[in-house]
Amino acid sequence: MSEIPGRKFALLPMLGHTKGKRSPVTCALKCDNACAGDVCNTSSNSYFRDIASTTLSRRAALGFGAAGALAVVLGSALNSSETAVADAGTGLSPAATTGYGAGASKLQFTAIPSIGADVDAVTVPAGFTWQPVIRWGDPIFNDAPAFDLANQTAAAQERQFGYNNDYSDILEIPGSKGRRAVLFANHEYTNENIMFPATMPAAEMRAIGAAAHGLSVVELERTNKSTPWSYVKGARLNRRYLNSTRYELTGPVAGSALVKTTADPAGRWINGTLGNCSGGTTPWGTILSGEENFNGYFVAPGTSASDKRYGLTNKPTARQWELDDRRFNANNPGYENETNRFGWIVEVDPFDPASTPKKHSSLGRFKHEGANVIVAKSGNVVAYMGDDERFDYLYKFVSKAKYVEGDRKHNMTLLSEGDLYVAKFSGDAPAAEIDGTGTVPADGSFDGKGEWLPLVVGGKSMVAGMTVEEVLVYTRLAADKVGPTKMDRCEDVQPSLHSGKVYVACTNNSDRGKPGKEGATEVNPRNENRDGHIVEITETGDQTSRKFTWNLLMVCGDPAQGDVTYFSGFPAGQVSPISCPDNLAFDSVGNLWISTDGAPSGIGRADGLFKVTVDGAERGRVEQFLAMPRDAETCGPIVHDDEGHVFVSVQHPGEEGTFAAPRSYFPDYVPAGATPKPGQVRAPRPSVIQVFRIAA
Fold this sequence. Notes:
Elements lengths: L1 E2 L6 E2 L12 H8 L16 H5 L31 E2 L37 E2 L3 E8 L18 H4 L7 E8 L7 E8 L4 H4 L6 H10 L2 E8 L8 E2 L7 E3 L4 E5 L18 E3 L4 E6 L5 E5 L13 H5 L35 E4 L9 E3 L11 E4 L4 E7 L3 E3 L1 E9 L5 H4 L6 E10 L19 E11 L2 E2 L6 H6 L1 H8 L4 E2 L1 E6 L6 E5 L26 E7 L7 E9 L25 E6 L5 E5 L2 H4 L5 E5 L9 E6 L5 E8 L4 E7 L35 E7 L3
Parallel strand pairs: 3-4, 11-16
Antiparallel strand pairs: 1-2, 5-35, 6-7, 7-8, 8-9, 8-10, 11-12, 13-14, 14-15, 15-16, 17-18, 18-20, 19-24, 20-21, 21-22, 22-23, 22-28, 25-26, 26-27, 27-28, 29-30, 30-31, 31-32, 33-34, 34-35
């Protein structure tokens, strides 16, 4: 590790591997170099190729079709910002045609051309502009100071919007006639290398970084539905969830000896949430957030099967919180179980700032990308979840109790008890036709069948030799025993209300096909899969079914660069190039919207947001709506096409720079030598932004 002179904090080693989809900096900071290490899943259960030889919808899909569901409204604003607008008459790809055809929404746009990875601007379609809703450091309480980049404190950061927003959603406040809403955002991780000056003491830097993690809830307002949103400082619903915030553990693991510590001998109360990635919104108006790369925050013995399976090691952590808080070192007596208290799905109530957030053990413990909920025809609530690591699994939870319209108190208990399953896929093409290039098999599509293998059913363990508590705490180990399919990093998993189908973003797996690693399969049709693909699942019956069929909607890449791609038969020369799908959303008519994370490494282009038609003659058509500034990934898409508004979280802009030499000036774009306006800084700031049409 290298050190900044004058302080003890060791900067993260910026490995040159970039084995996955990200820059070395992001790999080190976000997921503790997961792709640089050994594959955590060394179990012997079937890969896709093993079973292929036998023959191989975000936000609108959250159950809002059920009566009584809270409406999702979209919009926002703060300051006007520099805008890069694609020239509709210059340099457009064949995909740059009006995005208003089969399955068209009311959000008409001309697709932008693919943007270079080094362009430090938000690029939006002609006729649109963008503004930040809220930025890192913006004060959200009346007693919070204005953001001062050069004079940060932990006390100030606890009262300001956090860093590296990922999942976001905007829910209308009932009775406000669409003029007030609440914004939720989680804060996945921090980049101390660009946040702090070299002169800052290490302990202070650690404290500020910790305060910049967690979750934020912020009220928004606007004058009418045609105007952008502004955040409301000091509003009643505003809240920061910090490392000191107490979470209630629910479900079978609550009170278990596996989660008891010196600080919590009851095993029911957990301080803080870590590594929050994507999430979901429930039909009863709460927010779910997935604890993903929690392992990077802990020192642990690293010798047990569970430690190895979850990537826990006996090495100092990057942020070194273990120097300030004993619980972040599981070698300390009394804290051996602290790591078991993270890796859960979190549920918060954004409408009650005094409520206690929950961690739901019934949904299993792994590197949760997020969870998305839909109400099945039976009335049971079903949550779909991906474990975001190479060769890990896809999961489904089915609630024991049923959704009751209008009974919010009851519905907020639905995720506390139910059945947990893990997916196994089979394919229908001969293995010889899957050659590792991504070439479509002779039958014209990548498709097959699948089943949901039970882990916990009716309150009983379905895994030999493991109790229910063990299955839920060590879910990866339990799943290994029942033989599910190893996947290429399941990220967002979204059920569509329009079709009932479920879409899985498999972001990439650069290890597939390498020596000693599983090769291409029908559902993972490329070796060294750097660009990812989208799996489409159709349940047999409703979402509670144990059987399904599947196909690939698309195999991502850039056809112009010679990549072998597949877009459900749509001409490859007429799509926007796309790489590393991450988060998913739906518009009001069921089009799929995909945000990406890793396109600079995959195809050398900026990450962005893409609309994909999933039905009709134009199924598989990809149209790029926006592109990110330098080094940033696109997160948390919200599409409100009825109002012409789109939102995204812009995460880690300027990631590969330093505090002294920024690589991005998003979102304030203060010119060199100019005096920043109040609240502005000449440095990168992760932000939630809104894109909307320019008024005529």
